[in-house]
Design brief:
The protein is built from eight helices and no strands. By secondary structure, the protein is mainly α.
């Protein structure tokens, strides 16, 4: 898996380098409305906008989903529950998840609900903009509750380790995210998209 991610990362780096060269050639030959990444404007754009371009909702979604995946994996909820304690822990965790879903439904399904848009619709609304966070929090609630009730997570340190497990395992995805976002934004810059 890591070798595939490394190959994908190398491909993105090569694509970015090719785009730099192509943008320079196309802007030098005055082909259409193309901006060079090697021009003063391109260099200023690259350094001046880098942080803004990386800070997107996709990055937040990646972090939240990695936290949820890590907590589910390390809590043991994905394993087959054979002991009585595990089955009881699963029931309690599902009960907490049902309560969470009911609260979300009350915040979205009732007339004039808080998470609806000003026109009363779900799309677009505060709920639709936070859907990934709502799902991730529900999965974290389910898995941490299960882990605590089953005894797999016994201390706050165990819970913190559980929440950070996905980020540790998914760290290569952050590198790919940076490379992919930079390539996409460079395409937009060069071709004025």
């Amino acid at each position: 898996m890591k070798s595939r991610l490394a190959i994908l990362g190398a491909g993105l780096l090569i694509a970015e380098a090719a785009l730099v060269l192509i943008s320079w050639i196309l802007s030098a030959t005055m082909t259409g409305h193309v901006r060079s990444l090697l021009s003063g404007e391109g260099v200023r754009w690259f350094f001046g906008c880098f942080t803004e371009l990386m800070g997107s909702p996709v990055l937040v979604w990646l972090v939240l989903l990695l936290i949820a995946a890590g907590s589910m994996r390390s809590s043991g909820i994905l394993r087959r529950q054979q002991s009585y304690r595990d089955r009881m822990a699963l029931r309690v965790a599902v009960a907490f998840l049902v309560i969470y879903i009911v609260v979300i439904l009350l915040l979205t399904a009732m007339p004039h609900a808080v998470l609806l848009s000003s026109t009363g619709s779900l799309l677009p609304s505060p709920f639709s903009r936070s859907l990934v966070a709502v799902i991730a929090f529900g999965l974290v609630l389910l898995s941490v509750t299960f882990g605590l009730m089953s005894g797999r997570l016994q201390t706050l340190t165990d819970v913190l380790d559980s929440l950070s497990e996905g980020i540790r395992r998914g760290a290569p995805l952050f590198i790919l995210y940076i490379l992919a976002m930079q390539f996409v934004e460079s395409l937009r810059f060069v071709f004025w998209l």
